[in-house]
Amino acid sequence: MKEKIKNSYLFLFLKTRPLQTAGLIITIFSILMVLFGSYLIPNSPTTGISGEQLLPPCAKYPFGTDVNGMCVFSRTIAAYRTDLSIVVAGALLALGVGFPIGVFAGYFDGKKGVCGVLSTIILRVMDVMQAFPIFVLGLLLVAIFGPSTRNLILLIGIANLPGNLRLARSEVMTLREKSFVEAARTAGNSEVRIAFLHVAPNALAPVIALLSVVMGFGILLIAGLSFVGAGVRVPTPEWGSMIASGGLTMITGQWWPSVFPGLFMAVTVFGFSMVGDIITALIDPLERVVFESSRVAGQKG
Amino acid sequence: MSEKTPAIQVEGLTVKAGEKYLLKDIGFELYSGDVLGLIGETGSGKTVLIDAIGRNTAPGLSMKADKLCCFIDGKETDLLQKKEEELAATVWGKKMTFILSNARSRFSPIMTVGEQFINILKSNQDMTDKQAAQKVQEMFSLVQMPDPKQNMNNYPHELSGGMIQRVEIAIALAMSPKFLLADEPTMGLDVTVQRQILDLMDGLFKKSSSSVILATRDLGIAANYCNKVLVLYNGEIVEFSDVHSFFENPRHPYSRYLLEIAFVSNDKDPKAKQRVFRSQKDKGMNGCFCSGSCERAQEECLTKHPQIHLFSDGSFVRCGRY
Amino acid sequence: MDTLKVENLHKRFPVKGGHHIFAVNGVSFSIRPGETLGLVGESGCGKSTVGRMIVRLTQPNEGELLFEGQNLSHVKKKDDRRLRREIQMVFQDPYGSLNPRKKVQDIIAEPMRLSGEKNKEFLKEKVVSILKMVELNEGYLDKYPIQLTQGEQQRIGVARAFVTDPKLVVLDEPTSLLDIRFRGEIVLLLKKLQQETGCSYLFISHDLNIVYQLSHRVAVMYLGRIVEEGEAEQVFRNPLHPYTKALLSATLLPDPKQQRQEFFLKGEVPSPLDLSDSQCNFSARCPFASEQCKNCLPGPVTMESGHKVSCFLFHEELVKTAG
C-alpha cells in the first residue's frame, strides 16, 4: 500500500512542488477545520463571559479573549466554517455562471447572426460590471438588503464573474482558430457542440486554476467588508470582523484578538492560492500525461 | 582548388537538460568553403547544435566540449572558454553570423526593419547612420527585396514571410561573415522564393569561401547546395560524409531509409514500399536504434551501443558493422 | 459519372476598406472514382480554399460543386449526414488537427458517431480496424495526441478521415509540416489506402516531388486560377505554362549528380488583393509576356495530348496550326 502511494501520480507531482504541497496541507487543514472544528472548540464562539474580557492567552483561553469576553481561539476556529463556506460558494457561483457564458461569448465573438450579437452584448455588460468597484458594490448590497451570508456569496460571485468570463472567453478565442475545430466541423458537429464539447474542455484548465485565487481574494474581500461593518452580523465569528474589532485594542497592547485571526486568514489565503496547480494537475488528463512523459524522459538519461 | 584550411572544429560536444542528453559527444571538422548540410528530424538536436556553437543554449541546459573553435585568418579562436562579451565583440555578428528559422520572432514589432538593421550594423561596426542606411539598401537589393527603399521603412508585420526571411538573411550576410550557421533558413517559404534565396546565398558563399552549417529537413537542399552532410538522430551523430558519397552510397541504415523514402529514384515505385521504420529509440543507450529494421543487423547490434567508425577519407559512421 | 465536378468556382473575401481578396477565380476540374488529382501552387494561389469549399467549411460565391451529380451548396439536412461520411478531409497540422484532450479512439470514432452510429461495440471494432489500416495497433486506443510522434499523429488524422468509408478525401498539405521520414511514410500509406478502398483524392500541396508520387492528374494554380492541367506524367515531363516551368525548375531533387535547372523567375507571388481579370495575372513576372497578356485574360486551351493550358503562347499555336 505504501508503495502504491509513493508511486502514485499525486505524490510524485507534489514532490517537485514544495510550495503547492504546503498549500495543499493548509487547504486540507482548512477543510478539516470546517468539518470538525466545532469539536475542537473549548468555549462558546458566540457568547462571552463578562468579567473575562481581554484576557491574555492562558490555559482556559489559548488565544485569550476579546473585548466582549469571547474566546479568540474558539472564534478563530469557528470562523473557518463561516469564511470558507461563503468563499467556496461564491467562487463556484462565479465559475459556474462565468465559464459557460465566457465560452459562448468567446466562440461566437465576431460571428454573424444572433449568437454573434449576443456575444457582443455580453461583453458590454461585463465592461459595466467591471467598472463598478467591488467594495462599493458590497456596501450597496448591504445597504439595500442588509448584511447576510447569502449576500456575501452573491457578492463574491458577481465580483468574480467578469474575470472568469473573460478568461474563458480569451482561451476560447485562441482555441477556435485551431484546426481540430475545423476537423470537428468537417465531421459534422454543429457550432454549439463544438463550442461546448470540443473547445470548452480545453479552456477549463486556467479557469480552474483561477478558482483558488478567487477564493483567496474572496476571504480578503469579506474581511474588508466586515472590517467596515458591512460583512457578517455580530456575533458570527469571521476573521475580518475579528480583526476589525480587535484593532481598537491593539493600541492598548492587547494584540491577540487581532493577530491570531489575521495570521490564520493570511495562511489560509496563501494555501488556497497555491492549490490551483494541484487541482489542474488532477483534473486535466493532458497535464498528467505530460507530467508522466517528462518524468520518464528525465529518467532515461 | 582552394587549399584545405581548417575553419571550424568541434570535439566531444555534449549538451544536457538535467539528466537527459540533447547532444552527445558531437565531433566534426569543417574547412573553409565547406557547406555542411545538417540533417535530422525534429528532436535530433540540429537546433541545439547550432545554438551550442553560438553559445546560445537555452538557460537550464549544460554544455561541455573537449574542443570548440573556429579559425579566423588562420588563427585558432576558442569559442568555448572565451568570455561571451569578448566573443560578441570580435566574432559574433561579424565573423560568425546566424540565420534562424522563424525569423519574424527576432524582430521587434515596434521598429521598422530598416532601423533594426541599422542598429545591428552599428553595434558591430563603426559606422555613421548614413553609411549604415546605405549598407542596408545595398543588402536589400542583394537579397532582391521588391522595393529596397520602401521596405526599409516597413514594420515587420507589413512584410510577408518571404520578405522577413530575406531581411534576416541580409542581416546575416551584411558583414561578409566567414562562418554562417543557418537553421532551416528557408522553411515555410514558397518554392520559387526559396530557390531564389538559396541561389543567392550559394553565389555569395562561393565568392567569399565562407564555411556554412545549414540545418535542413529537405534532402533536395542538401543535395544541391552542400558539399558535406552530417546526419543526427536523437542527439548523436549517425553519419558524416561528402555529399556525393552520401547520396550514392549511404552507409548507415537510417541514412539509407531517409534516401529511399525521399524518392531519390524519381520513378513512381520507391524501393521502400514494404518496410516501415520502427525506431528502437526506447532502447536508450543499449543497442542501435536501427536494429529493428536493418538488414545487416547482428546480435551485438541489439545490445551494444555502436561507436563511430572513421574512414580514410575523413568520413565516419556510427555503426558496429564496420 | 465523376466523383467530383467543380465548375467555375469563385471565392472572394472582403477586406476592410472595400477591398477584396480574390482567392479563387473561376476554377473548374473533375475527379473520377479512384483517381488522385494533385492541386499544386504556392501560397495565395487558392488551392486550400478550393479544398475547404469541397468539404463545405466555406461557401463559394459563384460556381457549382457537384459530388456524384449532387449539388453541394444548399444541402438538405437528410443529405448532410451522408455527405459528411462520403467527403472527408486530412489536415495540414498533425497535432493541431487533433483535440489534445481526447483519446485516440474518441477522435477516430467521432465522425461515425456524428453520422448516427450508436452501437458501442460496432464503433470500437471499426476504430480498431481503421487503426490496423493505418498500420497502428490497439495499444494506441487510449493514448492522447501529445504522446504520439508526428507521423503517428498524422496517421490518426488519416484514420479519422477514412473511418466513414469516404468516396472522396481532400488532403490539405498533409505532409508539409512533417519531417522527411514521416512524409514518405504517409504518402505510402495514402497510396495503399487508395488501392484498398478505391477512394478519390484531391491532393493539395506545394511539394511537387510528393504530388508526382501520388497523383494521376495534376492541376497547377496561380492566383486563384488553374493555369495548366493534365496527366501527371505530361505536366511534369513536358510543362507548357511558363509558371509550371518555373515551379518545376525551382524544385530541388535529392540528387547531387543532377545539375539543378536554372531558375529564371524573379520576385514574389503578388497579393490576391483586388486582383484584376482583364489581364493574365502572371504577366508581370513572365519572361514570355507580350502586349496581349497585359490586356486580356487567356482562357484554357486543350492540346492534342489532353493537356489543358491557359496561356496566349498556346492560343497562337493553335491558331497557327488551324490557319
TrEMBL record, chain A:
Residues 80-276 form the ABC transmembrane type-1 domain. Its main location: membrane. Belongs to the binding-protein-dependent transport system permease family. The chain crosses the membrane at residues 21-41, 84-108, 128-146, 203-227, 263-283. One of its GO terms (cellular component) is plasma membrane. The keyword Transmembrane helix applies. GO terms for biological process: transmembrane transport. Keywords: Cell membrane, Membrane, Transmembrane, Transmembrane helix, Transport. It is found in: Cell membrane. This is ABC transporter permease. It comes from Youxingia wuxianensis. It is a multi-pass membrane protein.
Automatic annotation (TrEMBL), chain B:
It is a peripheral membrane protein. GO terms for cellular component: plasma membrane. It comes from Youxingia wuxianensis. Gene3D superfamilies: P-loop containing nucleotide triphosphate hydrolases (3.40.50.300). This is ABC transporter ATP-binding protein. One of its GO terms (biological process) is peptide transport. Residues 8-259 form the ABC transporter domain. Keywords: ATP-binding, Cell inner membrane, Cell membrane, Membrane, Nucleotide-binding, Translocase, Transport. GO terms for molecular function: ATP binding; ATP hydrolysis activity. It is found in: Cell membrane. InterPro entries: AAA+_ATPase (IPR003593), ABC_Ni/Peptide_Import (IPR050388), ABC_transporter-like_ATP-bd (IPR003439), ABC_transporter-like_CS (IPR017871), Oligopep_ABC_C (IPR013563), P-loop_NTPase (IPR027417). The keyword Chaperone does not apply. Belongs to the ABC transporter superfamily. It holds the Pfam family oligo_HPY. The keyword Acyltransferase does not apply. Its main location: membrane.
